[in-house]
Structure to design on (329 residues):
């Protein structure tokens, strides 16, 4: 209790307390005033309030994410879909980082010719992505959710054959005439390089690209079908994280193999085996995907039923409130 002068002249006693008046516009109670004790409102500089903020952050944000991740990793199809890309990072490290230089330096192609082969591989990969999407949709609609896994796994394993053929293909080019690296390809005319020189390896590169491109869209569609709608964002975040990790780890692992296995040709032939492991993991989805999709379907139906009940209950409460207000008026 304290005394203070009022600007109007007379002194009067005023009450200074730690209470705060808060006006709130409630749709059910109308405009009302509530008295709050300032001591119950946490201060921004209060250490306890900081601890409360951190605990709320953990409870509301961090802990639910960990729970979602644990739930995803308990699903066999999600595990297979995420980890199938790990062995596949090795062949992709060969293609993306080393193959162009390998074809020009070790196989005698000019730089322009090696780049053309990589371009044809990329074109085949584009065709394979389309084929994977169309083929997966057809198999899913015709035979059920298990058969797209056979297509993706079989394509990954079959892609090793044209890849091995491309790595070991004998271009039969005079290395002295082309300086073994193709730098003077246009300057010297390079009459030994003909259309036939690129026709067969070009076809091999396109086939290898097609086989390597089929798996991607099938894995993504499968991952979407075996996860609840509210978990799909985190599931694809995990998939992209592992893919990005593989893009960086793959070339490093290939470089280690080149150094320890006696040259690039031997290292590349062994590294292509990663697609076989990738294909096996994709094929194993044949045994798990149907059961996991059924679990998701049941979960979605249950959630829709709960949401429908909540909406009906909310509508009932709002109608009763409107009726009470009309009766009161």
């Amino acid at each position: 209790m304290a005394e203070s002068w009022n600007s109007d002249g007379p002194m009067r006693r005023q009450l200074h307390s730690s209470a705060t008046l808060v006006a709130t516009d409630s749709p059910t109670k109308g405009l009302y005033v509530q008295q709050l004790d300032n001591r119950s409102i946490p201060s921004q500089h209060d250490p306890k309030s900081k601890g409360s903020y951190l605990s709320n952050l953990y409870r509301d944000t961090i802990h639910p994410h960990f729970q979602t991740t644990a739930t995803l990793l308990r699903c066999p199809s999600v595990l297979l879909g995420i980890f199938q890309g790990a062995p596949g990072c090795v062949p992709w490290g060969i293609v993306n980082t080393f193959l162009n230089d390998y074809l020009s330096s070790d196989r005698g192609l000019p730089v322009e010719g090696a780049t053309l082969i990589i371009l044809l591989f990329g074109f085949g990969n584009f065709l394979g992505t389309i084929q994977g999407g169309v083929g997966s949709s057809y198999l899913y609609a015709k035979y059920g959710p298990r058969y797209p896994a056979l297509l993706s796994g079989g394509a990954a394993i079959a892609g090793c054959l044209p890849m091995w053929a491309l790595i070991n293909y004998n271009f039969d080019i005079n290395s002295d005439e082309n300086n073994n690296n193709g730098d003077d390809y246009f300057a010297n005319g390079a009459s030994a390089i003909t259309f036939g020189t690129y026709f067969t390896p070009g076809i091999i590169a396109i086939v290898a690209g097609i086989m390597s491109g089929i798996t991607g869209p099938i894995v993504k569609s499968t991952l979407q079908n075996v996860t609840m709608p509210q978990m799909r964002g985190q599931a694809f975040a995990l998939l992209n994280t592992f893919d990005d990790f593989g893009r960086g780890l793959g070339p490093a692992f290939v470089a280690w193999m080149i150094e320890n296995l006696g040259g690039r040709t031997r290292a590349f032939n062994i590294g292509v085996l990663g697609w076989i492991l990738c294909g096996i993991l994709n094929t194993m989805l044949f045994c798990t995907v149907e059961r996991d999709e059924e679990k998701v379907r049941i979960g979605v139906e249950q959630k829709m039923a709960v949401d429908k009940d909540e909406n009906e209950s909310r509508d009932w409460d709002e109608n009763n409130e409107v009726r009470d207000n009309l009766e009161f008026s």
About this structure: Strands lie at 2-5, 11-14, 19-26, 30-37. Residues 1-23, 25-42, 175-191 have pLDDT under 50 and may be disordered.
